Structures are given as C-alpha cells and as structure tokens.
Amino acid sequence: MWRMKSGAEFFNTIVPSADINLLFTGYEQCPPEKACGGIRAHFLLHYVLSGGGTVLTGKTTSRISAGDLFCYYPEQPLCYTADPLRPWKFAWVGFTGTRAGEILRSSSGGAPLTIHTHPSPSRMESLFESLFRQQEKRHEGFNLVSEGILLEILGELCRARRSYPESVPDHATPADPGAADLRSFYVEKMKQFIQSNYQNAITVQHVVDYIGIDRSYASRIFHRIEKRTIQRYLIDLRMTQARRLLAEKRLSIVNVARSVGYQDYATFERRFRQEHGRSPGSFPDV
C-alpha cells in the first residue's frame, strides 16, 4: 500500500450527529521542510510511517519520527514541519462527533496535544492501510467499517498508553491549564467509575486500573482536588447510600450491605460502626 503513489486523500460520509464521525483520511510523502499551519474545526490525528519532522506546541518543539503519533484538537493552532534531510511520510485522519473529544481523551491521556510512540508499528500501519482500502474501494457499508477501524486505532492508543505523569508532571503549576485540565479529567473519570461501580466489590486498584495511570500519581491528584483519598471517597459514597437504604427500610440489613458493595455482612457492620459509632441495625433510630 505504501509503495503506491506519493499521497492520497479520501473523504468519508458525513453524519453530524454520530458519536464519532470519520471525515477524511490520507497519507503523503512530504517534501523536505514542508510546513503545515492554521487551525481546523475537527480532530486531526497523524501517524508517522517513515522519516521525521518537528511538531511545535506553545513554546515546545518536539522531534517526531517513524512510529510516533500526534493529534491536534479543534481550533488548536497547527505547526509541524518535515525534516530537511529525511522528511516524513505520514498518515492522517480527521474526525468529529458528539463523543469524539471524550473518546480521544480516554485513548490519548487527555492532553490537548499528545505525542507518543506505538509499540507495534506494524499493527498501526495495518489499521491505517485497512482504513485507506475501505475508503478507496467504497464497498457497501464502507463508512461504518471505516469508523470501526478508527475506533480500533484509538483503542490501540489506549492499550499502548502506560503512564502520563511524565508528560504532565504532578508538580506542574495550576497556571498551566493543560496540566490542570488533565488532572481534573483523570479525577472526574475516577469518580465516575466509583459512582457507577460502588455496588460491586471494587478497590482502589480497580479504579486506578480503569484509568490506566500510575497508582501513586492517581492518589496524589485525587487528594489534591477532592481533599480526600480515593478510598475515603469510596467509603463515603457507600455509607451515604447505606444510610439512605436503611432509612427507607425496604431491604434487610444484609441486602443493604450487598447493595453498597459489601458481600460480607460482618465487614459492612464493622465499617458502619467505625463511621457512625453504632450498628446498622440501630439506624435510623437514635
């Protein structure tokens, strides 16, 4: 596929109300020092197939080479340039959608411009090649298949992602909006996971694994924003729901325990006594 011509671009069917809508995709062997600028009204993800170049974000210039990906958000100024000696050949995909931002942040760690290397270049190249084939052949249902491949690409980023404290350090100042936004994004995702799963036997490790970042980093940013630990947040939520269910008197105490994530009643009773100074059986009576 990559031995075809120097470049091509394909345009997909536009569905404005879709969760994620692939707009176009393409690839190009850039001439030396070719520069791209301006802004776009969509997300723009690039994957470098060979060669290299530089990407500028704010005052930071990053060197990009084969196997690296970088992505710009809507209305974010573009500034990237092919190397003068070994100019890059890259693939790109532009997309929008009602959940595009959420999906991309989940896949890329939340930063407005992310740069990282995929550990399996052959896998990523294969996905982009499949995407181009779908767009070029345009068989029945090609648009749906193409969007499925785009989601696979974003899923690969999510699986390849390790830990982002190095990209946005915990000691970054509140004046850095990118760092603050990323920390808030992680904390909101942790809270959403807990609120959706507190009825199950989840632990702090489950929360951290769901987000996919380092546990100590997750704990620090959660405490910084919420002024309590992840464990404390989980306990507080479970106890709040337990008090509500006990007050309603619709369930047995054992089933109240099960409804807030405690399969073992003894553990629930012990925790309830620690938090309220009395047994769940005496609640809400004084």
From TrEMBL:
The keyword Ligase does not apply. Residues 188-286 form the HTH araC/xylS-type domain. InterPro entries: AraC-bd (IPR003313), AraC_XylS_family_regulators (IPR050204), Homeodomain-like_sf (IPR009057), HTH-like (IPR037923), HTH_AraC (IPR018060), HTH_AraC-typ_CS (IPR018062). PROSITE patterns: HTH_ARAC_FAMILY_1, HTH_ARAC_FAMILY_2. It comes from the Bacteria. The keyword Signal does not apply. It holds the Pfam family HTH_18. One of its GO terms (molecular function) is sequence-specific DNA binding. Keywords: Activator, DNA-binding, Transcription, Transcription regulation. This is HTH araC/xylS-type domain-containing protein. The lineage of its organism: Bacteria, Pseudomonadati, Spirochaetota, Spirochaetia, Spirochaetales.
